[in-house]
Amino acid sequence: MSVPEFMNVVRYKLKPEYVDQYFKALEEFDCEGLKTKYVAKTGDNDYCFVGLWDNEEAISTARPLMIAHLDQVREFMEELSPDLGVTDPVSGPIVA
Description:
By secondary structure, this protein is α+β, with helices and mostly antiparallel strands.
């Protein structure tokens, strides 16, 4: 088993009435190269997704699938801000 080298983190807010539907959709989401996924509840309706990936190429290859997943669950989310929309994503190499 390879050690993950890259991670992505996505901050978002869920509408309370869609929490169960969101987690069902997330359970079904998988991509080649995605080793592990975690979700932290950081507030009443606030969440943070963390994905650990084989490498940067794996996440780049998976981007269309991630966008399709976001399109599937977008209605479950509240807008964070007009500039950000419904997610605040970042990604980069694991350094520690």
